[in-house]
Structure formats: C-alpha cells, structure tokens
Design a protein that fits this description.
Length: about 100
C-alpha cells in the first residue's frame, strides 16, 4: 500500500467493501485492503464480490494479516464473528451483482 492516508481505526469493528468493475479498485479491494485493515486491527472485513457472486469474511487480524477468510456464494447465510456476531442473509445480493 504505502499510498494515501488512513484514518484512525479506534472503535471500528468492521469494514464492508463492494467490488468495483474498475480493475485497479478491484485489485485494491482484494489484495491491499485486507492487509491494511488487518494491520489497523479492524476485527472483521467483509468483501461483497460482484464478479464472483460471493461474500468473503476476513477475521482474526494478527501481525498485519487476517488469519481467517471464509467465502460463501450469494444466497447463503453468512455468519460474522465476534465482536460483530450477526448473520447476513445474502439472497438479495444476487439482484445487485451486475
């Protein structure tokens, strides 16, 4: 990363990103942002991937990386771990994927 400025992440429990159809932004969402958010200590990063019709939940940040990443297809129930601890219903995301 090394570019731009990051705001303080104090009190941030979760970040949600939706992939763009822009290749550069898409690459950042998948490769750079997980490491940046993990390094900032954000407990959960949720990536809504419109190209793959899936949701990926990154959790357990340690040493600047997430130790856990789970991907589920749109339509599945997606469990978000503590400290968020909710279940996402992703069926309706199918209508917004394109």
């Amino acid at each position: 990363m090394g570019k731009g400025e990051w705001a303080e992440a104090d009190g941030v429990l979760m970040v949600v990103e939706v992939t763009s159809h822009d290749r550069d932004a898409d690459r950042r969402d998948r490769a750079e942002k997980p490491d940046g958010y993990a390094a900032a200590g954000i407990a959960v990063y949720v990536l809504v991937d419109r190209d793959q019709d899936s949701v990926t939940v990154y959790a357990d940040p340690e040493g600047g990386v997430y130790r856990s990443a789970t991907t589920r297809a749109f339509g599945a129930l997606v469990e978000l771990p503590d400290p968020v601890a909710i279940t996402l219903e992703t069926e309706k995301l199918k209508h917004f994927a394109d």
